Amino acid sequence: MPISKFKFDGVLLGQGAYGTVTRARHKETSQWFAMKQINFNAASLALISNELAILAQNKCPYLLKAAYAMIHNHKLVLATTYAKGGDLGVKIKKYLDQKKHFSETRIWLYLKQLAQAICYLHQHNIMHRDIKPSNILLWKRHHILLGDFGVAQMLRGDELRKTSVGTPYYMSPEMVDLCKYGLGSDMWSLGCVLYELMALHPPFASARNMQHLRQRILYTPYPPLKDKLLYSKKLREHVSLLLQRREKNRINAQQLCRRLGIQINQHQPCDIQRISPPKTEKEWEDMILRYWPQIHTAPHRFSFRRWWKVSRP
User: Fold this and answer.
1) Do 93 and 65 share a structural domain?
2) Angle, to 10 degrees, between the axis of helix 104-123 and the axis of helix 184-199?
3) Exposed e or buried b for every residue in 140-155, given b needs 16+ CB within 10 A?
4) Which runs of consecutive H residues, i.e. helices, occur in the chain?
5) Is the CA virtual torsion 33, 93, 213, 107 positive or negative?
6) What percent of the chain shows pLDDT beyond 90?
7) Is residue 268 a part of any domain in this protein?
8) Cα separation, 142 vs 61, whole angstroms
9) Quick one: 158 and 71 in the same domain?
10) In the structure, what pLDDT confidence band is assigned to residue 257 with cuts at 50, 70 and 90?
11) How is 38-49 classified by DSSP, letter by letter?
């Protein structure tokens, strides 16, 4: 897929250590995409293999997907779904400035979608490691997408990790304490997001510095929600279930889905396979053709209802 098929309008959607995200419109379909451009260097390519595996292969309606991929100017370019509603972090800040609150119905809806997205990842032994409002995209009306798999980690069995990554306000106690951590760390982050949807700030936002934040996360109970009349006891209980300091006491993704009345396929087939990072640009091109074969010839618009099956060698 040549980059000439897209028209960039100069709108910068995001920028990070490994590249930029800009907006572009497909000339033939007039559909907007968020174009993530990743520099070809050792640091970025070591992480992008996991992100690419998830973007290319996941079949969850609440996870971000990539419709196209290409090489341009020695950069890997991924055309992902464009969320015109922005991200949840911006929405929360807007509500805070306007002194508004999310309705309980809206929060339940977001929680159910996030629970399904995280459960899907965890069923594939994938830990997101950076769940926060700015990584939750407002795609369509009341429909959200969990994105940014740049630090996601594919685990083997009951494998644990010790690397400290993510955003401090949403880090679990075990991650902050530099202990080994597992999938439960994502559930703590989800609890922080749920708390923020009700309070319009993270649980430990009052911390003065990093050291104080660490102490608060490790030893201090999260501050009680001030306006208890605004949200039901049942909704507030879910915060408590997620923000359990000891990981083994924390509710997991499948348990959360069951509590929310969501049916889970216990024998979910493995959709997401590991991708070994290619070493040369030619190997990257070959891999792109494998996972996005002839995708540009499809006359219909990209949608989650009809996601192309991954072709495997």
Assistant:
1) no
2) 170
3) eeebbbbbbbbbbbbe
4) 42-57, 88-98, 104-123, 173-176, 184-199, 210-219, 233-242, 253-259, 281-291
5) negative
6) 50
7) no
8) 13
9) no
10) very high
11) EE-SHHHHHHHH
- Closest of 208, 209, 192, 210 to residue 200, by C-alpha: 192
- Mean local confidence (pLDDT), 272-286: 71
Asked whether residue 158 falls in the same domain as residue 219, the answer is: yes
SS3 letters for 53-93? Answer: HHHHHCCCCCECCEEEEEEECCEEEEEEECCCCCEHHHHHH
Please state the pTM of the whole predicted model.
0.84
245 within a domain of the structure (yes/no): yes
Scanning the structure block, which residue is given the tokens 């640009």? Answer: 281
Q: What percent of the chain lies above the pLDDT cut of 70?
A: 81
Same domain, 142 and 127: yes
Name the strand (E) or helix (H) holding 209. none
Q: Do 56 and 111 fall within a single domain?
A: no
Coil, helix or strand at residue 120: helix
What gap in Å lies between CA 117 and CA 14, rounded to an integer?
Answer: 22
Average pLDDT over every residue of 111-117: 97
Counting the structural domains of the chain, the total is: 2
The whole domain housing 70 covers: 3-82+275-297
- The tokens describing 46, both together, are 């070591």
Catalytic-role residue among 9, 87, 97, 130:
130
Per the annotation, the verdict on 148 as an active-site residue is no
Residue 311 placed within a domain: no
